[in-house]
Automatic annotation (TrEMBL):
The gene is IL2RG. SMART domains: FN3 (SM00060). This is Cytokine receptor common subunit gamma isoform X2. It is found in: Membrane. Keywords: Glycoprotein, Membrane, Receptor, Signal, Transmembrane, Transmembrane helix. It comes from Pantherophis guttatus (Corn snake). GO terms for cellular component: external side of plasma membrane. Residues 326-338 have a biased composition (Pro residues).
Length: 346
């Protein structure tokens, strides 16, 4: 057990209890999966989904060839080998493989039967033809070279159904739909896998493009009209609204922040044409200038101060003068700063 030999034995044991069979070492153990794409070529993948911890090298052999040979066509991701493209393969013998880490240590030794790892290409050219009595015939094509080895899954539903109906067809490229309503709109899909006569597999192909039959759905033209009319019109309206909003904001802005007037006259003129006469340069009339000049004289206000023994200081604003005289033996009560609430009520 790899787990028990690991330094984190306790954690390993715990993990073993929780998920027996899962590798519990710090680095996830590499695993190779090979898929034969439509019988054309094989891709063996160990790191395209999850970044591998080593720059592995890949060796494989078939029973007949038996001598391991290194991958000649690596697929790389971020500079690391993550998969191998193999064009020379043997479907009918088991395939052996090694994954060596960067130190040349073999970390994975696997075997598999490629015949169970064939993934057919997706079906295409789905065609629907009318039969009598509201029956339909669906036909399709497959890119896979041995159609006798295929099983197909047909999925269809009308626009009134919520769930798809499913039908499986072995070794045939047509399917008869028992009863359809021409008032409805039907959608069909087909996918394929190698059937039980040829393989033990669940590797389905990609699903075909959809095929349609029945009354034309209103949604595609409606969608088209939305695209061609509503969207441009809507954007135009939004633009207009934005412009209006902008204008309104501009007006508010002008009210809030009146523009600083540009000086209408050049400063140069002050010194050339007006010889430094500022009031003339500024356009203020002689009379106005006169009014600015002080034309009155205030009487000199004589402030007299009585001696402390005499009583008040004439110019003092404070009614209780403390500037002169001996301090009062008792301190004055603190002056009321706020009006007396009792005085307010009377
Ligand atoms: C990984 O190995 C391949 C050759 O198998 C080499 O081309 C690639 O540069 C190596 N990447 C790193 C990161 O060492
Ligand atoms: C890698 O794996 C191959 C094939 O299993 C083996 O012969 C070889 O010794 C291993 N190490 C190196 C460094 O190639
Ligand atoms: C698909 O079917 C149509 C008519 O049934 C045919 O004209 C067309 O060539 C077919 N396409 C392919 C790729 O076979
Ligand atoms: C098949 O039937 C549908 C619905 O009744 C009709 O719209 C369509 O034209 C028919 N196609 C042929 C080839 O008769």
């Amino acid at each position: 057990m790899r787990v028990l030999g690991h330094p984190g034995t306790l954690l390993g044991l715990l993990l073993l209890l929780v998920a027996p069979g899962e590798p519990a070492t710090g680095s996830p153990q590499a695993k190779v999966d090979c898929i034969c794409h439509n019988g054309d070529y094989v891709i063996c993948d160990w790191g395209s989904q999850q970044k591998p911890v080593h720059n592995y090298s890949f060796y494989f052999w078939f029973e007949l060839l038996s001598k391991p040979s290194e991958c000649k066509d690596y697929i790389q991701k971020d500079g690391l080998n993550v998969a191998c493209h193999i064009s020379n393969y043997d479907l009918f013998n088991s395939m052996g493989m090694h994954l060596n880490d960067s130190q040349g240590q073999t970390v994975v030794h696997q075997e598999l039967r490629l015949s169970n790892r064939v993934r057919p290409g997706r079906p295409f050219n789905l065609t629907l033809s009318n039969l009598s009595n509201h029956q339909l015939l669906l036909t399709w094509k497959t890119p896979y070279e041995i159609p006798e080895c295929l099983e197909h899954l047909i999925r269809y539903k009308s626009n009134k159904d919520t769930e798809f109906m499913e039908h499986s067809i072995v070794n045939s490229l047509k399917f008869q739909i028992p009863s359809v309503d021409p008032e409805k709109r039907y959608t069909f899909y087909v996918k394929s896998k190698r059937n039980n006569n040829c393989a033990t597999t669940d590797l389905w192909s990609e699903e075909s493009e959809p095929a349609f039959w029945g009354k034309e759905d209103m949604s595609p033209p409606l969608l088209a009209s939305i695209k061609t009319i509503v969207i441009p019109l809507g954007s135009f309206l939004i633009l207009i609204l934005l412009l209006l909003a902008l204008l309104r904001m501009e007006r508010v802005w002008v009210v809030l922040m009146p523009r600083i007037p540009n000086p209408s006259k050049k400063f140069e003129d002050l010194f050339t044409a007006y010889q430094g006469n500022f009031s003339e340069w500024a356009g203020v009339s002689k009379d106005d200038v006169e009014t600015f000049k002080p034309n009155y004289y205030e009487d000199i206000c004589a402030i007299t101060e009585l001696l402390p023994s005499g009583g008040y200081l004439s110019a003092s604003s404070e009614p209780t003068a403390k500037s002169g005289g001996p301090p009062d033996p008792l301190p004055d009560p603190p002056p009321k700063t706020s009006p007396d609430p009792a005085a307010l009520t009377t």
